[in-house]
Amino acid sequence: MAKTANEGFEAFLSRITPTDAERAKAASHRVGIEAKLHARFGLYRIFESGSFRHGTGVSGHSDVDLFASLKSSKPAYGSSALSAVRDALKERYPSTYIHVAKPAVVLDFGAGYERVEVIPAYLLQQVGDNMKYNIPGVTTEWMQSTPEAHLDYVNESNTMPVKGKAKALARLVKAWKYYRNVPVSSFYLEMRAAAYTRRQNAVVYWMDICLLLEELQGIKLASMNDPTGTTGRIHAYSSESLKQDALSKLDTAVSRARKAYDAAAKGNLKAAFEQWVCSSLVSSQHITDGWHNMARPSNTCTHHNRTLLNPWESLRKYVCSDCSAVMTCLCDQDIALYVSPHQAMTGTDQHTRDDVRVTHPLTPDVCDQCRGEQPKAYPKAAHRGSASLIHRYYWHEIYRDTALEFLAWCRAEGLPLLDESGKAQFFDYRREHAEKYAEIECSVIERIKATHALHPKYDFTRPSDADVIKTNDVTVESVPACYLVRSAGPALVLPLDVDDPAQGVQVEEFVARQLRAQGREVMFCESRPLQTLFGNLMWLWVQSPDDPRLRPSGFGGRDGVGTDEHGLIWTLLPHDFGSAAHARRRGQALDAHMDMLPNDTAEMLWAYDYWQEPSRPLRQYLWAYTEEDEQRARQLITVLGAPLVKLILRYLAESYWERFLGWPDLMTRRDTPGGPQDVEFIEVKSSSDKLSDDQRSWIKGNHEILKLPFRVVKVHRTRRLDVVIEGKPLDTLGVD
């Protein structure tokens, strides 16, 4: 057990310093990476840079950085170089999770435990004894880098005037960054620590870590001039939202580090250690058992207050709001190793779409099941094959339990779960033994059904359609009709006084004909014209070049229209597009865009027509690109008018993926010399039809925000018509 603060920090540093074996294991992939890049782009050289080479890495967190000086022509955008290098390395390592984290392409070998970052670089000029390169910047642009000059600076700082302390202090502040998940540049912290150390006559870790943090707080993580003088400014963060998160966590760390400093100065070592543990500057285990096992400080926090990072991932991650740990549960070990290794060390925030690194993999007793706690339900929307409540509510349990039982069957059959290269074989075996997998899945579903009947895990009850309609003040009109008897397909109906089955139509057309008979115009609506409207009039906001999170996105061709030779369509999208977080992050730009859109309907129609072509890639991404979609969206502008269209656009922009579905079947109005009058949206339901989740959400949103005239028309089955024509039942005659 550490008896002094200095002993504690020395022991802590010895535990978080990467071993030679750890570095060698990650660096062992260099040969394959170098060969692939040389074959695809040509290489002047490839060399190691970053924390490992500088001697400032943190065990279990720092990566091996490879700086690749490419011979190929430099593209216009840094993001293009990253995409090209990523795609090339995916060819070489098809089973490895490879993604872009500017300015590098990241390869997570060994389920993320052996991470290598490849930085594509283009030679710019020689500066003294060092070479200056262009590397990808934080958006699409290029920035300058002189990695060897920075290495020299760190090495020099480490020898003047306090030998060995610059790198150790950098390692300590980086440990705080990793353990608290602080969105600040590791390189920035390293340069700040080196510059700080140069001004000191002596460095005492327990004192100077507090003073360094206070200095960072005082300057509010301001950008710094490159101390080597070879490039421009060194930035701490890549966006304003990340800055606020980093400053908030820095304020907390400074408060606790100062309390620790004051307690240690008074000789109260116990109180000092408690504050250092709270700030993640040390681990509580280092106090109690010799300061070891820093990689997983499970008893520094009970992780009582946990939230799911993203409930829709097959391998779930839990975020502790008390200590900021990002964890997977030990009970998911087989899932992490053999089913979803690409998710083992990285998750995606469900709101911001940001990649979040797992800091505490396979921590015991993290999930609700292991703790015996009641889990929150995350039901999926109903779709073909998974429409039952058991499928919708227990989807995660069905997938997880089926996967685990299938893995057990593979083991019993002597099937190796990893191939010779370490690639998981799960999905190969699932395809090869599809019948066995389906058999296991059916058994799991039946078991879950039986268990739910006795001890339900989730409450399936929810407001009835009648409750939703009443709560949101929706008018319901009942229309009688004669229903044709069919064994399958959508309901076909007739007027009560008609017996000719050939006149049978679906309920939406049935109501539309009645409205037309009343002298009203009708447009079939639902969601597609609204998607088209959004894609056309909002593309300048969504794809604005001043968005730092904009990146190239490729997606499958829509009916083969506008694709490249690989069947893909390419456009630029922010990675958090469609989320509420995207709208918040781009709130000022959204306000400016809405102010820019015309309030005059004629002017808006002109803008809509003018933006047809430049908005096409975004509209193709949104599945809203056909001529019919375009005409119906234009009609919406004409009928609703510019001010109401702008209200709808903002409503969609504030959380697109949650609001773009569920729109009513019909829009109807009366055309008069003075323009459209008595506009109304109508949702049509057959006798047995229920409101979908999307429709419920739209009805609520309309009642609270949009306030569009809306009602539900229920086509009631008043009469049935059983018909057999030429000896064949109606449902076999292809009547639609």
Please explain how this structure is put together.
By secondary structure, the chain is of the alpha+beta class. The protein has 29 helices and 26 strands. Strands 1, 2, 3, 4, 5, 6 and 7 form a seven-stranded mixed beta sheet that branches. It is globular and about 100 Å long.
Question: What keyword list fits this structure?
Answer:
736 residues; alpha+beta; seven-stranded mixed sheet; 29 helices
Shape: globular
Rg calculated over all Cα atoms: 31 Å
N-to-C span: 80 Å
- Largest sheet composition: 7 strands, mixed
- The average pLDDT value, as a whole number, equals 84
Strand content: 15-25%
Share in helix:
40-55%
Number of strands: 26
- Class derived from helix and strand content: alpha+beta
Topology overview:
Blueprint: H1 5-16, H2 20-27, H3 30-40, E1 43-49, H4 50-54, E2 64-70, H5 78-92, E3 97-101, E4 104-109, E5 114-127, E6 130-136, E7 142-145, H6 147-157, H7 165-179, H8 186-198, H9 205-218, E8 224-225, E9 233-234, H10 240-265, H11 269-278, H12 284-288, E10 306-308, E11 318-320, E12 326-329, H13 333-339, E13 346-348, E14 355-357, E15 360-363, H14 368-371, H15 389-393, H16 395-412, H17 426-432, H18 434-454, H19 465-471, E16 475-484, E17 492-494, E18 505-506, H20 507-517, E19 521-524, H21 528-542, E20 550-556, E21 568-574, H22 580-585, H23 587-596, H24 601-610, H25 616-621, H26 627-640, H27 642-653, H28 656-659, E22 666-672, E23 675-686, H29 693-706, E24 710-721, E25 724-725, E26 728-729
Parallel strand pairs: 2-5, 12-15, 16-24, 23-24
Antiparallel strand pairs: 1-2, 3-4, 4-5, 5-6, 6-7, 8-9, 10-11, 11-12, 13-14, 16-17, 17-18, 19-22, 20-21, 22-23, 25-26
Helix pairs in contact: 3-5, 6-8, 7-8, 7-9, 9-10, 10-11, 13-16, 16-18, 21-26, 26-27
